[in-house]
Amino acid sequence: MQGKGTIRAEIKPGQEVLIVLKADQRTGKLTRGVVKDILTNSPQHPHGIKVRLQDGQVGRVKGIL
Fold it and tell me: Phi/psi of residue 57, each to 5°?
């Protein structure tokens, strides 16, 4: 893994990432996918930048692959 996913500039559409879905926040289960859209506007977020994957799932980035 390259980055932690808390800095918006590190994340680009087309990158493969690990995210935590809203439903999985309690368990911390990670979902792997490719970034379609970046949904967080601020330059950084302590819990991870929110993204939409190409399959439509939305979650916060926990790792950049």
Answer: -70, 145
Q: 64: alpha, beta or left, given left = phi > 0 and alpha = psi -120 to 50?
A: beta
- Check if CATH label 3.30.2020 holds for domain 8-64: no
- All structural domains of the chain with their residue ranges: 8-64
pLDDT at residue number 51: 98
Residue 23's Cβ-count burial label (10 Å; 0-12, 13-18, 19+) is exposed
pTM of the model: 0.93
